Amino acid sequence: MRAAQLTAWRQPLALTTLPDPTPGKGEVVLRVLACGVCRSDWHAWTGSDPDVALPMVPGHEFCGEVVAAGAEVTRWRVGDRVIAPFILACGRCGDCAAGHQTICAHQQVPGFTRDGAFAEFIAVPFADTNLTALPDGLPPHVAAGLGCRVTTAWQALVGRAELRPGEWLAVFGAGGVGISALLLGRALGARVAMVDVVPEKLAYASSLGADVVINAADVDAAQAVRDLTGGGAHVAVEALGVETTMTGAMRALRKLGRLVMIGMPAGEHTAMTLPMDVLYSGQLTLQGTRGMPAWRYPSLLSLIDGGHLDLSPLVTRTIALSQASDELAAFDRPAPPGVAVITDFQT
User: Fold this and answer.
1) Residue limits of the Enoyl reductase (ER) domain (predicted)?
2) What integer pLDDT is reported at residue 266 of this predicted model?
3) What pTM was estimated for this model as a whole?
């Protein structure tokens, strides 16, 4: 199969031919229909993620068509089109039984702990536990985001912050997960303030219905959020994983506000100095989140099927496998609005 392989940190991916995967027990092999290029892939590409050992095929945000099923797979047949969460939980441990698949001790993560979906085919473990049918009306390039960015934002807003209609949501970072939070927040009936330093991203967020856009390069973003929302956001989402945005998100909250950290802290950002006086005096709730348990897919897909959520604006460019390296390198600087999704695995 054709694949793009990470063989050295911060170097172009090697376009190569690898053996087609075969399914083990409980696994299926998918023909990859689409795979997003995510900021988390950039962390792997830079060598910031300790789980990644070279060589590795990146790609964790994908959907595909079943082409082979291994022993003990009961839910899926050849020809089924499916979505996969990026955290592939075992489905058998105590955490999985309690519905907490994202903390499964036996989890596997494509592109990080095993080869991912920057390839024509991918083997997916624990298939019966994790896979969800791809709705007929959802194009693969849009559905790819349901593997990471959209579902991570959904878990943050619904599973962690319990965002309610009419509340103010402040999103710090207008990249892929930030725009996902914007679209989902509006669908849930919240008012949304978007914070970034890239004018083009803020203009795009405004075109998608953000109630307020704030350029943190020009103003004190936290103070602007408090002023424009009448006292601060009820919920804040941090979507970059850096100290500056974490601090801003904390300071942007009203008392009893809830902050969910979605951004992956890596490298120099694994340790941060935060305003704990704000946490204490505001009686804030500070939470982390990573991925989404597979059992939450039905509620999200129902929102989409009911016409209450259009995710298509999230994807602003579809690319070939050979262009993945350029997209990864683009995260070294302010990337263009929206996300890139690989749909052509031949060129």
Assistant:
1) 10-342
2) 85
3) 0.95
